[in-house]
């Protein structure tokens, strides 16, 4: 239970600290959340997946919406939650893989990054008045975004880099944790059997 609780705390703290730091544009979308959702679904016991994945999302969103004085639910939030649900499903798909699990994991990481980028930016294009409802308007939403804000391609780059980095970190941490557990198990004294 300690590892999922640490994940919940770390991801929530990261998202809140990013907002309190003024949400620097260069770090936009650089977040561990998608990687934690994917890896939780792929590796953790099922009872911890929603706690480790959805817990930080909901808690941080409640805080951030209050901080920015935004409504609790908006179209952007709905599209993000939909993307995170797809990422969870990708993680469950990875869980079933026995052979080439790492290939499926990192392939799913990239797939999740691309889906998040396409879905959230398409939702912004549909819902925001700043974008013309034409193919060039959609292309603007996918590339340069709104005037006065960082280009959406920067957001996509940060999403891909953070998703791959945090997925790799999760895998390395799991490998170290499993190796430590197996060493402890090997060093444990044998269990005495009942003599009847």
Concise structural overview:
The protein is an all-alpha fold. Helix content is 73%, strand content 0%. Helix 4 packs antiparallel against helix 5.
What would you say this structure looks like, in words?
This protein is an all-alpha fold and 196 residues long. The chain has a single domain (2-178), classed as Orthogonal Bundle (Arp2/3 complex 21 kDa subunit ARPC3), CATH 1.10.1760. It has helices at residues 2-20, 33-43, 46-67, 75-95, 101-127, 135-142, 152-187. α1 runs parallel beside α3, α2 (33-43) crosses α5 and α2 (33-43) runs parallel beside α7. The model is unreliable at 191-196 (pLDDT under 50).
Write the layout of secondary structure elements.
Blueprint: H1 2-20, H2 33-43, H3 46-67, H4 75-95, H5 101-127, H6 135-142, H7 152-187
Assembly state here?
A: single chain
CATH topology: Arp2/3 complex 21 kDa subunit ARPC3
Question: What is the CATH first-level class name?
Answer: Mainly Alpha
- The separation of the N and C termini measures 37 Å
CATH architecture: Orthogonal Bundle
Low-confidence stretches: 191-196
The tally of structural domains comes to 1
As a percent range, the share of strand residues is under 5%
Structural class by secondary-structure content: mainly alpha
Quick one: how many beta strands?
A: 0
Order of helices and strands: HHHHHHH
Mean pLDDT: 84
Radius of gyration (CA) equals 20 Å
Major β-sheet profile = none
């Amino acid at each position: 239970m300690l590892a999922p609780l640490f994940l919940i705390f770390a991801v929530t703290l990261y998202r809140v600290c990013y907002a309190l730091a003024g949400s620097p544009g260069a770090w936009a979308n650089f977040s561990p959340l998608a990687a934690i959702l994917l890896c939780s679904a792929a590796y953790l016991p099922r009872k911890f997946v929603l706690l480790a994945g959805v817990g930080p999302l909901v808690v941080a969103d409640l805080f951030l919406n209050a901080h920015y004085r935004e409504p609790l639910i908006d179209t952007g939030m709905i599209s993000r939650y939909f993307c995170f649900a797809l990422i969870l499903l990708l993680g469950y798909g990875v869980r079933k893989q026995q052979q080439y699990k790492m290939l499926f994991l990192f392939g799913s990481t990239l797939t999740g990054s691309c889906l998040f980028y396409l879905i959230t930016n398409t939702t912004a294009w549909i819902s925001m008045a700043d974008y013309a409802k034409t193919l060039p308007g959609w292309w603007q939403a996918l590339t340069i975004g709104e005037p006065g804000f960082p280009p959406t391609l920067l957001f996509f780059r940060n999403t891909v880099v953070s998703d791959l980095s945090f997925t790799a970190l999760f895998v390395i941490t799991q490998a170290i944790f499993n190796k430590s557990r197996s060493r402890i198990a090997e060093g444990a004294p044998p269990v005495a059997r009942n003599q009847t």
